[in-house]
Amino acid sequence: MPSKKLTKRAVDSARYKGDGTGRFVIWDTDLKGFGLRVYPSGQKVFVVSYRIAGRKRLKVLGAYGVFTPDQARSNAKDALRDVRRGLDPIEEERKTAQGETLGDLMDAFMERHSKPNKKTWKSDEARFEQHIPARWNGRKVKSITRAEIAALHHKIGRRAPYEANRFL
């Protein structure tokens, strides 16, 4: 695979010279693992290549035009810094996109904290079932707004004032 410093001029003049598989990458000479993938269609995307846990990975950073070479190089440096810390940028991105649902979080709380550490874990479970709307179980935690939580808290306070004020 060819290599050169990925400047705006170099990216603009880059053309697909591959074997038809779509795997033509021009690697940057300044930052190891940073490159420009050129597709047979002419589309150009910035990529970063790294190894983690013995696996070779290739992460697409973004399309040329959306990112300049300098912006993409900065993103590649961030990704490679994460790899040095033992994080897989592709896996982290997938986890962020997928997110945890409230049901997953409540299950994790019950299994990791409540059941092993509390004799009253059944009351925690009952409170979840009684107060948390079932339709929230499949929702991502990040999608639940402060206003929804405030409304739920107000509703619980009206229905069970002792429960709402117990921790004050």
List the helices and strands and how they pair.
Layout lengths: L7 H6 L10 E4 L6 E5 L5 E9 L2 E9 L5 H16 L4 H10 L3 H16 L3 H11 L14 H14 L1 H5 L3
Helix pairs in contact: 4-5
Poorly predicted sequence stretches spanning 5 or more consecutive residues: none
Distance between the termini: 65 Å
Rounded to an integer, what's the Rg over CA atoms? 25 Å
| Shape label | elongated
Q: Tell me the strand percentage band.
A: 15-25%
- The amount of helix comes to 40-55%
User: What kind of sheet is the major sheet?
Assistant: 4 strands, antiparallel
Number of helices: 7
Class derived from helix and strand content: alpha+beta
How are helices and strands ordered from N to C? HEEEEHHHHHH
Number of strands: 4
Mean pLDDT comes to: 88
Strand order of the largest sheet: 1-2-3-4
Key features of this structure:
single chain, 168 residues, alpha+beta, four-stranded antiparallel sheet, 4 strands
Structure description:
The protein has helices at residues 8-13, 69-84, 89-98, 102-117, 121-131, 146-159, 161-165; strands at residues 24-27, 34-38, 44-52, 55-63. It is α+β, with helices and mostly antiparallel strands and 168 residues long. A 4-stranded antiparallel β-sheet has the order 1-2-3-4, with helices on one face. The protein is built from 7 helices and 4 strands; from the N terminus they run αββββαααααα.
